[in-house]
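User: My advisor asked me to double-check a structure prediction for RNA polymerase sigma-70 factor, ECF subfamily before group meeting. I don't want to rely on an old file, so could you generate it fresh from this sequence?
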Amino acid sequence: MVLRRVAEAQDSTAFAALFAHFGPRVKAYLMKSGADATTAEECAQDVMVTVWRKAAQFDPTRASAATWIFTIARNRRIDMLRRDRRPEPEDLPWGPEAEPDQEDALALQQETAQLAAALRTLPEAQRSMIERAYFNELSHSEIADATGLPLGTIKSRIRLALERLRHSLS
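Assistant: Sure, here is a fresh prediction for RNA polymerase sigma-70 factor, ECF subfamily from the sequence you gave:
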């Protein structure tokens, strides 16, 4: 068997025969699976180099030589598709971030002050729930666990507090 001679003796004549037989077939297979001619040629070359390097790993009790070689080709094709579909890193801005406009900074400060004043008008039970949910970033279930209150009570207090805040800020 030709592949065995390549594996055992690194017989270049046997490999040339193997390459002559399987090289064009692997290229045709890759082109049928959607690769362009250049890509198929490069991939076929890579497959045959792999066959040369890993011929000793071939096990004739598990598959025929053709099955083994075409499995390598299929796997190389999948690797190529994954590589081609890999997204490019986004352009990262260089240098410091632009300073916000004075108007934007002033508006943000005013909105923050209004929100703080509106929060102070809430009943303690509602303000506490808002602080835990939005400032401490706790889920409703986590708040219920921490306070021992029923989940429905937590949700009701947060809903009522948000309604009051909307009314105060509008």
